[in-house]
Amino acid sequence: MEKLKKLIEITIKLSSEKNVENLIGLIVATSTEFLNCERSTVFLYDKSSQELYSYSGIGINKKEIRFPISKGIAGYVASTGETLVIDDPYNNPLFNKEFDQITGFKTRNILTVPMRNIEGDIIGVFQILNKNDDKFTYEDIELSKAFASISAVAIENAHLIEELKRQYELLQKAFLELQQAQETIINQEKFATIGQLASGISHEIKNQLVVIMAVDFIRKLYPDDKKILKYTEYILEARNRILSLLDEIRDFSKSKEYEKSKIDLISLIDKTIKLERFDKDLNKINLEFKEPDYKYAFALVNQDKIQQVLINLIRNAAHASEPKSTIQLSLQEDENNWIISVKDEGCGIPEEIRDKIWQPFFTTKSSGTGLGLDICKKIIQNHNGEIYFESEVGKGTTFFIKLPKFL
Ligand SMILES: Nc1ncnc2c1ncn2[C@@H]1O[C@H](COP(=O)(O)OP(=O)(O)OP(=O)(O)O)[C@@H](O)[C@H]1O
Ligand SMILES: [Mg+2]
After folding, report:
1. By alpha-carbon position, which residue is closest to atom 11 of ligand 1?
2. Minimum-distance ligand 1 atom for the alpha carbon of 317
3. Which of 112, 208, 325, 334 could hold 321 in an S-S bridge, CB 3.0 to 4.6 Å?
4. Contact status, residue 101 vs residue 95, Cβ threshold 8 Å
5. pLDDT at 257 (0 to 100)
6. Does any ligand 1 atom lie closer than 6 A to the CB of residue 373?
7. Architecture of the 2-168 domain
């Protein structure tokens, strides 16, 4: 009765251990006391290699022992499913004396029982050595069988849980990969569609731009009218920007080296501001440039591309701003770089979308494409620069463009 109570306690203890190796350690530790013997070993059956294996030692000293199922006492029990009691192992041909010779252990008697899962399949064998001061009795055999069968169920469960965990992780990994692949495909598809769309409409837009050629004619008609000359200049520049924008969209998915030259950023900002005052997106918004103290700010850039970045940032700032507020551009320097900033007093960028705004096609606007900042980032990276922002919700946002100085 006492033994039965103890067996139930052990069953509860074993069934709460979910890690196979720990579980085997626990089986070995509890069985020697329970079955009143000197040693015990669990050999598990590896069906794929037709081998039995067990572990000796723990932690870094842990060693795996493997041998074919056709070998030794454990092998015999695993293949036949018979329980085997051996009282004089040294006279038994199945016994391997080597282990005793190496370790100095003296095996007096061995009890080996098969371990079966619920379906009755053999999953390993349970072996105990040297009954304390005695031989194994009929009761020992029965208790060992009971012990082996609760151990087998616990091992099988732990195996199943480990397998389930592994499958779950695999599934999770596959799911993530699939999600990434899907995103890439969607983006590629969007790029391809944009490319197609762009080449389709660019032809049409270019046709319409021919009308602007009339500007040349007007300039010739009024060669002395400074106002006309000034404004028509803006029109021509805008036309060129539209043309290069079309090229940019068409080449969007290909990264291309731009032609760069030594440009004064101060006059580039100046020019951009003058041009942007005609932008209808900036209706009723003040656009200012706080002129720096220094006269020139030279950098090696593609003028059109940097202008495109500034325009994108100014437009984003305008979209976030109320009428009559101010967008201020300024230029600072550090030792090696020029830092252009575009500061607005708009709604700010909420914390939760700050990581996303650089992604292509991320937009919070009903008519936005969400390509603006992605294009800006690509252009600035192409200039070995950096683009980043600071923002406070309700107060405003400042975008910074850092470009290496050209000395
Ligand atoms: N200055 C700003 N203030 C507040 N939000 C901004 C600012 N600049 C960008 N954002 C946010 O970042 C998002 C992405 O900007 P991005 O320029 O890439 O695309 P978009 O302006 O929405 O569309 P488009 O392709 O027409 O530029 C915007 O939709 C907006 O939510
Ligand atoms: Mg934008």
Report:
1. 357
2. 1
3. 325
4. no
5. 66
6. yes
7. 2-Layer Sandwich (3.30)
Q: How far is the CA of 363 from the centre of ligand 1 (A)?
A: 6
Which sequence spans correspond to the domains of the chain? 2-168, 258-404
Beta bridge partners of 333: 338
The residue nearest atom 8 of ligand 1, judged by CA position, is 316
Domain topology for 258-404: Heat Shock Protein 90 (3.30.565)
The string of pLDDT tens digits covering residues 129-172 is 999 878 899 999 999 998 999 899 899 888 888 888 889 899 88
